[in-house]
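Q: How would the structure tokens look for this protein?
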Amino acid sequence: MERERVPIGIQPSDFFTGCDEIRWRFASLVGAEDPSRIAVIPSASYGLAVAARNLPVERGQNIVLLHEQFPGNVYAWQRSVADSGAEIRTVIPPDDVSRGAAWNERIIESIDESTAVVTLPHVHWTDGTVYDLVAIGRRAREVGAALVIDGTQSVGALPFDVREVQPDALIVAAYKWLLGPYSTAVGYFGPRLDGGSPLEETWLGREGSEDFKRLVDYQSEYQPGAVRFDMGERANFILLPMLQASLDLLLEWTPEAVQDYCKKLVSPLIEASVSLGFSVEQDEWRADHLFGLRMPEGLELDALKAELESRKIYVSLRGSALRVSPHVFNHEGDVGALIEALEAARP
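A: Here is the predicted structure in token form.
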């Protein structure tokens, strides 16, 4: 902010270096070997729209997504099928309390020779159900389908490695588990999207744009890699330093350590919840930084939320679950307070 007060100190190179710092930091966080495959974008929906624009879908094909998937990873694909005549294939989970394993099986079974795109999160935003992206990606590649991941609800708190998952696109809004500011996001775009068409024709994305004296020598070629997909006015001299600091912090902490801390923190909560009659997904198919509690018989979700708020305990209602999202700023006292509230609210 101090630098923005005296803009005369901002040099042409600053329009590029800040973005490049973000690229290599995010690449390091998700195991991407080539930072030029990282785009600096404003939101998850922006990055998903880039993916939808550049992944061809034809009449007779299908796009696989999930029941109650976050709408930011739905609307772009609804547009795609409306324009192409393809169809959306929504994978619905079973009614069982422990549904993660069966839901993953259904996803893999839904992918067939007519599937053009599989687009889903790493964890479900309502209850933290974890998806086996390695197995799902393997099946997608068998039939030639693209794999698009919305990592907003997980990347930064749950380990993700693009070398293992091999997504064609990984899109992450920064304001969640990347701890970054609103209106910033990052996207990894794999070889399938090389040479793709960006949403915006930005001057910064064109070859030779570093030379401000020659900007009117208009160029038909883009900067290499995913830089072509960058948003307009990407060199935000206030927001990008914030995102850079957040990524530095996460690279120091590591997502593995964040997940391990959350696991140790919530273990007593999971045990107590089950004993009180709440339903919780099995450990193997549940994230520890984000998970859902489903109500025991006789307890209404709204009533429980009101009880929690009266105690100044804040969680979220998402679908049919009470979503609990701990982080490293939480401690054992917070968990104890939540357990006491659940005990008090039990019918």
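The longest strand covers residues 115-121.

The CA atoms of residues 82 and 88 lie 10 Å apart.

Upvote if useful.
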